[in-house]
Amino acid sequence: MKMATEQEALDLLARVGVNYRRVDHPAIWTMNDPNTPKGLPEVKNLLLKDKKSDQFYLYLVGDHRVDFKSLTDQLGLGHSRLEFASEKELESVLGVVSGMVTPLALVHDKDNQVKVLINRALQEIPQISAHPNVNTATILLSYPDLVKVLAAMGKVPVIID
């Protein structure tokens, strides 16, 4: 698969017509990276999968821990076990590597195999942060604009607690 590019992320935002602010910074690989600029909204972006190879993109407020048991219950997965997607799966499904997972890479999910899950708390923060397919910049946008971007990719998020 072709790797996701910054230009395609910026083109998507322009095509959808959302307002955003860009913050350039040194590469950020994890939420606790010392290069993280102060004041950015802390969010987590995770690509998860279950035993049947269902894939889930989970977007949540950074200080929330993922309760996998509760999440499988909310998704009606029964006794399935959720786990993190491998580096190879990140590349083949979204065209990104760890540290660059972003909702803007969902445009690469051409086969519509990834279900989008959004933590309800994201609706309550004034701005949401997302990498533009690179981890040396952060895009700040509103929750309604995020939903517009997802809709333009054919994604309807499932809101989870």
Automatic annotation (TrEMBL):
Identify the residues that the record assigns to the YbaK/aminoacyl-tRNA synthetase-associated domain, covering every copy.
43-148
Transmembrane segments annotated in the record for this chain: none
| InterPro entries in UniProt | ProX/PRXD1, YbaK/aa-tRNA-synt-asso_dom_sf, YbaK/aa-tRNA-synth-assoc-dom
Signal sequence, start to end: none
For this UniProt record, give its keywords in alphabetical order, as a comma-separated list: Aminoacyl-tRNA synthetase, Ligase, Protein biosynthesis
Provide one Gene Ontology biological process annotation.
translation
Molecular function terms from GO: aminoacyl-tRNA deacylase activity; aminoacyl-tRNA ligase activity
A single Pfam family it belongs to is tRNA_edit
- PANTHER family per the UniProt record, alphabetical: PROLYL-TRNA SYNTHETASE ASSOCIATED DOMAIN-CONTAINING PROTEIN 1-RELATED, YBAK DOMAIN-CONTAINING PROTEIN
Which protein family is it in? Belongs to the PRORSD1 family.
Name the chain's protein: Prolyl-tRNA synthetase
